[in-house]
UniProtKB/TrEMBL annotation:
Pfam families: ClpS
Similarity comment text for this entry: Belongs to the ClpS family.
Subunit description: Binds to the N-terminal domain of the chaperone ClpA.
Role, per record: Involved in the modulation of the specificity of the ClpAP-mediated ATP-dependent protein degradation.
Protein name (record): ATP-dependent Clp protease adapter protein ClpS
UniProt entry tagged with the keyword Methyltransferase: no
Keywords from the named record: Hydrolase, Protease
GO biological process terms, semicolon-separated: protein catabolic process; proteolysis
Gene3D superfamilies attached to this UniProt entry: 3.30.1390.10
NCBIfam families the record matches: PRK13019.1-4
Molecular function via GO: peptidase activity
Species of provenance: Plantimonas leprariae
Residue ranges that the Swiss-Prot or TrEMBL entry lists as coiled coil: none
Length: 101
């Protein structure tokens, strides 16, 4: 009656979900030199000169450009580091993040 039932097993259904990805977005401004934006993209996002230049030009022409997608923590850390690199030089360079649809 009050014996502990050692035979009962609770079957756990493993729920494996992909972490949602977050975009890092480069925002255009009128002051940050193009070469500096390109150098930050190369350093923080491991882009080649060519990739970095394309992203910089796209943001320059369209107002913003998706740089890459990462898990939320990585996206936020990289956006902060890249924005800080500009701030240290006195530039208003801005990287933001937003969740993917
Ligand atoms: N618009 C800036 C310029 O003409 C370059 C730039 C590109 C800045 C992309 C920020 C983002 N110097």
């Amino acid at each position: 009656m009050s014996d502990i039932d050692f035979e009962t097993r609770t079957k756990t259904v493993p729920k494996v979900e992909r972490p949602k990805l977050h975009k890092v977005i480069l925002v255009n401004d009128d002051y940050t030199p193009r070469e500096f934006v390109t150098s930050v993209l190369k350093a923080e996002f491991r882009m080649t000169e060519d990739q970095a230049h394309r992203v910089m030009i796209t943001a320059h022409q369209k107002g913003s450009c998706v740089v890459a997608v990462f898990t939320r923590d990585v996206a936020e850390t990289k956006a902060t580091r890249a924005t800080d690199a500009g701030r240290r030089k006195g530039y208003p360079l801005l990287f933001t993040t937003e969740p993917e649809e």
